[in-house]
Design a protein that fits this description.
little secondary structure; globular
């Protein structure tokens, strides 16, 4: 869980080797963009992004047909 850590930036390669990650909670931070961040996470099913400062969600779910929940 990376919830409520005042994160404003996450390096693009942070999740590069975590292809089996199923749930990711990034809610209640200060993120403004997540572009390209989740591309390697092909097994991602639940993604929590609520209570951030996101300005663009374009291409967020591209390649993630198994995503069941986006919160």
């Amino acid at each position: 869980y990376l919830t409520a850590n005042h994160l404003s930036h996450i390096p693009t390669q942070l999740f590069a080797n975590m292809i089996q990650l199923v749930t990711l909670e990034l809610g209640n931070n200060r993120l403004r963009t997540v572009a390209g961040l989740f591309a390697p996470l092909t097994g991602l099913r639940d993604l929590w992004l609520g209570r951030n400062k996101l300005t663009n969600l374009r291409d967020l779910t591209a390649g993630h047909s198994g995503l069941h929940a986006l919160r």
